[in-house]
């Protein structure tokens, strides 16, 4: 088995990091990127359009890298599309994590640009390059590796999905968007991340992922009334996402028919309870240290 295609990975990483660098230079030297729409819409930065373009370029680059793998077409990580009578097979499932990586990392560390100044942008470049490298290498072994290698790669990609989810949740809870705005951010990102984690593990994974995304929007609506730090709120949302994904996989694995098993409910219920207890202990400790837990 050949190793990862670094001859294709390195040029893609270079292109994405250079694009991020251009975005940072524009943000540092001009305020023209901020758009103040009239009416009820919140202000937004044109930088997000550039980040979206970079995400699309990342997805196309992932497709080119994946097509260099001989086992791609029988790996189960492709999608068949029909366009004007032509059948096209693309590795769209592999696009999800690489595309969301620059978006999520940029959204998270952009929150700290006031405190970290230009260091925040440097951290974005470093972490984006590191995470993209990890994801692309793991995807290679997911496609071309042996059973053990595929299992390890899948675990690594799942952990990356949780990291990206936390970054996205933090960006939303920091700004305390109304639920209507939050739906347009939390629902699609959670849908994609949940579908990526559940693919091959749960039947009708897109339907299950959609249900989980709806529950996450409702969870955000409840948590938005909690006057706590956006980091604490994001941890709560991450715990909820972990429990929902765990229960979905438990139902599919144990019963094989999509029914929850008592043991799975008890296991994830206990983990969730321990996580929330730990969170409450952390909140109580921070309050004893006179640390303000209110959001911005």
Q: Explain this structure to me?
A:
With 296 residues, the protein is mainly alpha-helical. It has two domains: 1-145, no CATH class; 177-296, no CATH class. The chain is built from ten helices and four strands. It has helices at 6-29, 47-66, 96-109, 113-116, 118-144, 147-175, 179-198, 205-223, 230-255, 262-288, and strands at 34-35, 44-45, 79-83, 86-90. The strands form two sheets. A two-stranded antiparallel sheet has the order 1-2. The longest helix is centred in the middle third of the chain and has 29 residues, at 147-175. The chain is globular, with a radius of gyration of 20 Å. Mean pLDDT is 81; it is low at 254-258 and 291-296.
List the helices and strands and how they pair.
Elements: H1 6-29, E1 34-35, E2 44-45, H2 47-66, E3 79-83, E4 86-90, H3 96-109, H4 113-116, H5 118-144, H6 147-175, H7 179-198, H8 205-223, H9 230-255, H10 262-288
Antiparallel strand pairs: 1-2, 3-4
Helix pairs in contact: 1-2, 1-5, 2-3, 3-5, 3-6, 5-6, 6-7, 6-9, 7-8, 8-9, 9-10
């Amino acid at each position: 088995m050949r190793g990862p295609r670094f001859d294709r990975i390195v040029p893609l990483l270079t292109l994405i990091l250079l694009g991020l660098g251009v975005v940072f230079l524009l943000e540092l030297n001009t305020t023209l990127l901020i758009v103040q729409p009239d009416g009820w819409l919140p202000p937004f930065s044109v930088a997000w359009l550039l980040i979206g373009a970079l995400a699309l370029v990342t997805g196309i680059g992932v497709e080119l890298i994946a097509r260099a793998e001989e086992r791609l077409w029988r790996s189960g990580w492709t999608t068949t599309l029909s366009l004007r009578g032509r059948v096209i097979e693309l590795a769209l499932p592999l696009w999800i994590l690489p595309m969301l990586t620059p978006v999520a990392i940029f959204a998270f560390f952009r929150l700290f640009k006031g405190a970290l100044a230009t260091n925040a942008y440097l951290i974005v470049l470093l972490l984006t390059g590191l995470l993209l490298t990890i994801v692309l290498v793991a995807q290679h072994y997911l496609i071309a590796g042996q059973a053990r290698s595929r299992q390890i790669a899948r675990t690594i990609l799942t952990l990356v999905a949780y990291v990206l989810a936390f970054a996205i949740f933090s960006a939303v809870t920091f700004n305390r968007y109304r639920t209507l705005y939050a739906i347009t951010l939390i629902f699609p990102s959670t849908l994609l991340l949940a579908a990526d984690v559940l693919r091959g593990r749960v039947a009708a994974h897109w339907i299950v992922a959609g249900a989980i995304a709806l529950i996450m929007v409702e969870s955000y609506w409840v948590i938005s009334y909690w006057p706590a730090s956006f980091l604490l709120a994001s941890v709560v949302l991450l715990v909820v996402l972990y429990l929902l994904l765990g229960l979905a996989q438990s139902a599919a694995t144990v019963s094989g028919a999509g029914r929850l098993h008592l043991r799975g409910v008890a296991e994830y219920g206990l983990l969730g309870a321990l996580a929330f207890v730990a969170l409450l202990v952390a909140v109580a400790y921070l309050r004893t240290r006179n640390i303000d837990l209110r959001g911005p």
